[in-house]
Design brief:
Layout lengths: L12 E15 H4 L8 E3 L6 E4 L10 E9 L11 H15 L11 E2 L9 E2 L1 E7 L1 H4 L2 E2 L5 E6 L2 E6 L8 E4 L2 E6 L12 E4 L4 E5 L8 H5 L4 H10 L1 E21 L13 E2 L2 E2 L11 E9 L5 E13 L5 E8 L1
Antiparallel strand pairs: 1-15, 2-3, 3-4, 4-7, 5-6, 7-14, 8-15, 9-10, 9-15, 11-12, 12-13, 13-14, 15-20, 16-17, 18-19
């Protein structure tokens, strides 16, 4: 125990921000094959389908993403299967990810992401990734989804998004998905919302050859089944933001050379002294960080005791991660 407290000055405290990335693969064998759809959960409401990494009735199963489908009012028809639900899904996703215009109307998803009168995505497949996979956000520029389109493999990715991404979404930053690394404006086939962890794919023949049945005869679960049957591979890097505060605890030569620990004395004598005239010596084993009203907030333990006397000075670096 120290006999004195020492105030930390502004130049004794530093903050850092570190981004940690983890590669996430979602193979077609997991999405459609390995477990005979025992890892696929459909619900009574029929509004989306959940995919797990293991049969979902198992206690070790982890939810990895949801698949759903919706369209705008322009495609609404009372004869369509689950018409109201498909409208509600599109509007709900658009409210959260695209927002409202000046008249208070919900904006549509836009092929270019510019929210003007350009090419709109009126029918969309939505992939909602779990926070377990995306963490704080999806890393820009490395999202790739490989699907079987007809007899060929089609790779959808946010090519060039490291430097070319949009910020005009209420849900954060997002990029345009293309089927070619050329990333020509106007050829986007979807959007990827990085902080929200949502991929939006156009439900058109650009990607799905059966897209014409999505809005009419197929239920949402049927559309999800069709998407999964075309799934070959999906990979991206997630991002975990690690914020740290570093405290530099400086022990000058004339400070902290004495301990108030009862074991420091034996018979009223300092046990670290051989001769009474010797300078006092202490061994630093821990550091306490206190609030302004002397409430202990955190304790840092040293890996081994450090000798401290009037002949040396120490600077101990304490880092709090959050």
């Amino acid at each position: 125990m120290a006999t004195v407290f020492k105030n930390l000055l502004s130049n004794d405290v530093a903050t850092t921000r570190t981004l940690l990335n983890e590669a996430i693969p979602i193979t077609g064998t997991i999405v459609s094959g390995t477990y005979n759809d025992e890892n696929i959960k459909n619900y009574a409401h029929g509004m989306f389908q959940s995919v797990y990494d293991y049969p979902y009735l198992s206690s070790s199963a982890n939810h990895i993403f949801d698949i759903t489908y919706g369209y705008s009012n322009d495609l609404s028809a009372s004869a369509n299967t689950q018409n109201a639900k498909k409208l509600n899904i599109y509007n709900q996703m658009a409210q959260v990810l695209v927002g409202y215009d000046l008249t208070g109307s919900v904006r549509k998803f836009d092929r270019n992401g510019d929210l003007t009168e350009g090419d709109k995505l009126d029918a969309c497949v939505f992939l909602n990734y779990s926070r377990l996979l995306t963490k704080d956000e999806v890393k820009k520029g490395n999202y790739r989804l490989t699907l079987l389109s007809g007899s060929t493999e089609l790779v959808v990715g946010d090519y060039g998004a490291q430097s070319d991404y949009r910020v005009n979404s209420p849900a954060g930053e997002y990029g345009v998905l293309y089927t070619s690394s050329a990333a020509v404006e106007g050829t986007g086939v979807g959007l990827i919302y990085y902080q929200a962890g949502v991929a939006v794919l156009t439900a058109s023949s650009d990607i799905f050859e059966n897209a014409s049945t999505f809005s009419g005869t197929l239920a949402i679960s049927g559309t999800a089944d069709d998407v999964r049957s075309k799934w070959i591979d999906n990979e991206f890097n997630n991002t975990t933001e690690l914020n740290s505060t570093v405290y530099f605890c400086r022990l000058n030569n004339n400070e902290f050379n004495y301990s108030s620990n009862p074991t420091y004395l034996s018979g009223s004598k300092i046990i670290t002294k051989n001769v009474s005239s010797d300078p006092s010596v202490a061994y630093v084993t821990s550091i306490g960080l206190y609030s302004a009203d002397n409430e202990l907030l955190a304790v840092a333990k040293l890996s081994e005791p450090l000798k401290k006397d009037q002949n040396n000075e120490l600077t101990l670096r304490v880092r709090l991660d959050y």
